[in-house]
Design a protein that fits this description.
Blueprint lengths: L2 E7 L1 H5 L1 H6 L5 E2 L11 H6 L2 E2 L1 H6 L2 E7 L8 H4 L7 H19 L4 E4 L6 H12 L2 E4 H8 L5 H8 L1 H15 L5 E4 L8 H7 L3 E6 L2 H11 L14 H20 L4 E4 H8 L9 H16 L2
Parallel strand pairs: 5-7, 5-8, 6-7, 8-9
Antiparallel strand pairs: 1-4, 2-3
Helix pairs in contact: 6-15, 7-15, 8-10, 9-10, 12-13
The structure holds adenosine-5'-triphosphate and (3R,4S,5R)-3,4,5-trihydroxycyclohex-1-ENE-1-carboxylic acid (SKM).
The site of adenosine-5'-triphosphate has 19 residues, from α7, α12 and α15.
Protein name: shikimate kinase
GO molecular function: ATP binding; metal ion binding; shikimate kinase activity
EC number: 2.7.1.71
Length: 296
């Protein structure tokens, strides 16, 4: 049977007294000078405000269908003692998050992984269950650059400019508490970003390339500038480009505090195809791996 988990990622999350007390400010003034190639942009960006709650979390509800793999979910991983249904997944998720919350002690969780690995999807589930606020670095950069899309930022100002902004966003987020942060796929390449992310707990969503390419081919590569330029069908293009990127970055992802391997989850659950793993099952495994790290 199919069930629905409603993710209420609403402004109220940020407005809870606990969050207000722990967060240094509700918006961040952006002061960094950029190194891009369009000098006219200096003024605009330097005076830009990052209205965190407003643009990213504000009044948004996401409905995720939890279906498929419920039948295949094994007790060992989900720790339920029986074959869970979708609603069991929600219960297990809640239980696990309550178990680890005290150990987290307010530390932020940074999700790292390739484009399309599910950082946003899984990150929203984690933030909701932990009562944390959710932020997506790419969205924050877009807001900082006046609503320009990531693809346009790459085109107009170049990758280096984008990466400088990314580092600045991560630096600022790292001074806060109780956040789940979906980082950009390439955030792992700059060692300075790790310095900030290691203030909290980083989780690598390790998804096989074929699954990534399938997901990306489904939605297209328009919003992902580093996948532009190859010829061929969307799946082949994505697969080729992602393979090269992963070769360059594999070791960087391994810096993360915890690794969530979809292949491992599928093996444990007796699920043949990683594409059948629900975001909730992946979020549960993320909590299991975070717990292992915290209790080391
Ligand atoms: N477990 C899953 N099963 C099937 N599809 C998924 C799953 N998780 C995410 N997706 C889909 O894959 C796509 C990419 O997911 P998402 O945006 O969460 O990834 P991301 O890591 O944040 O990507 P990016 O870094 O490019 O922003 C979306 O279309 C999403 O709906
Ligand atoms: O993998 C990458 O380098 C990127 C991933 C996206 O999230 C964006 O941050 C941008 O498209 C770059």
């Amino acid at each position: 049977m199919e069930a629905k988990v409603v993710q209420s990622l609403q402004w109220s999350t940020l407005n809870s007294s606990e969050n207000i007390m722990r967060r240094p400010s509700s918006s961040l003034r952006y002061t960094k000078r950029f190194n891009g190639n369009d000098q006219r942009h200096h003024q605009t960006l330097a005076s830009c405000h990052l209205g965190f709650g407003k643009g990213v979390i504000g009044q948004r509800s996401v409905v995720l269908k939890v279906s498929c793999s419920s039948q295949n979910v094994s007790a060992s991983v989900l720790e339920s003692g029986s074959v869970p249904t979708s609603s069991d997944e929600a219960v297990i998720l809640k239980k696990k998050s309550e178990d680890i919350e005290p150990y987290l002690d307010g530390r932020c969780i940074y999700l790292v992984g390739m484009m399309g690995s599910g950082k946003t999807t899984v990150g929203r589930i984690l933030s909701e269950t932990l009562g944390y606020s959710f932020f997506d670095c790419d969205t924050l950069i877009e807001q900082a650059v006046g609503g320009t899309t990531v693809a346009e930022i790459f085109k107009l100002y170049g990758e280096c400019f984008f990466r400088d902004n990314e580092t600045e966003i991560i630096r600022k987020l790292s001074s806060m508490q109780r956040l789940v942060v979906s980082t950009g796929g390439g955030a792992v390449v700059r060692p300075i970003n790790w310095k900030y992310m290691h203030k909290g707990i980083s989780v690598w969503l390790d998804v096989p390339l074929e699954a990534l390419a399938r997901r990306i081919a489904k939605v297209g590569t328009d919003s992902r500038p580093l996948l532009h330029g190859e010829s061929g069908d969307a799946y082949t293009k994505a697969l080729e480009r992602l393979s090269t990127l992963l070769e360059d970055r594999g070791e960087a992802y391994a810096n993360a505090s915890a690794r969530v391997s979809l292949e491992n989850i599928a093996a444990k659950l007796g699920c043949k195809d990683v594409c059948n793993l629900t975001p909730t099952a992946i979020a549960i495994e993320a909590l299991v791996q975070i717990e292992k790290f915290l209790k080391k």
